[in-house]
């Protein structure tokens, strides 16, 4: 049932720029593709999707996440710490406690949270691969995504060198040789990667950070390796001022400039965060088409600052929206991310800092652009029908003169009446078919209790 007519919407945000950002009327979907837009009459026997009282948007695209962190929320030791000590006290202290069930439950929590906020595509940066595990993290993540029907990109992380702050009181971070890492990526590409413009599955090469996780001589090789496989490159960069301090001290250049010399910029690369950028770095990113996964809420939670996303977008750069891992953003849903982007840039730079339609574009077309999925991200004829229906019947939306802006400007928990991936319904009447939230809650309680108990026995650090 991937053919239907979406009718009665309050309005449509298309994800397109300028005047085309809004549309009105109906959307015809045939065999999972948008075939007509406008004032359309139902054909005999055509399935009707009732969008009355709803704003329809492209399915939202989250371009940077760490699903394993969905069972590491609100860890007390990390609640009031900035990035580096938070990394040490939370993900890097708990990574070895994530067993098969913990990763599955975490993925399910995170994906469900995202789907119920309008997401239809998720890119997950997973960076703990170790012989300690008796399971295959890549396979677990793809299985959980497939089970829920969401598009999924695995950003295969990892490190060839451990970070400097690893102490002897921690289980050492897993590292791989460069050849073992690239061999593992090749295997994941062979098993899971689809290069099609509307792929359901993608693999991206994503060493955890270029600065801290790879030896400098491996950077060019890493970039060439990814391009030789026809896959994209991703990493964390300049999440706070510590990155620039490190590369200036070690290599005499700011991070983006330094990476420019190592073939790490281009329209097949995007970085998470990019909070701390010089004017020159913003220009370099824009000129090369290198993308940003803007994570306003996680950056706020860790006190890292506010990324110059509007400035990059104003230069024609590729900006996408992301939530980042839930251990540093306990509201890891796309509705919160939209509202955070809307409010934080205005708080910092005034009411003209960013327009509502532009934020929706980052969360949709921008995401499709950085992931290299041109078949999705906008509501336009010929695109795949990845759609989200935001129900506007909640009191928080009532009384709005321009109701189409509600999904961005009102914040709070989104009410997704339905969402579709290539015309296939993945949220139905506000629920995810086949997912029992009661069972998921019980599993979360069980997994968190087990992690806490194992952490107490040794392994995780106190504040
Ligand atoms: Zn991250």
UniProtKB/TrEMBL annotation:
Keywords: Hydrolase
One Gene Ontology MF term: hydrolase activity, acting on carbon-nitrogen (but not peptide) bonds
A family per Pfam: Amidohydro_1
CDD domains cross-referenced by the UniProt entry: ATZ_TRZ_like
Family: Belongs to the metallo-dependent hydrolases superfamily. ATZ/TRZ family.
Protein name per the record: Amidohydrolase
Domain of life: Bacteria
UniProt signal peptide: none
Domain Amidohydrolase-related: 55-406
InterPro entries membership: Amidohydro-rel, Metal-dep_hydrolase_composite, Metal_Hydrolase, MTA/SAH_deaminase
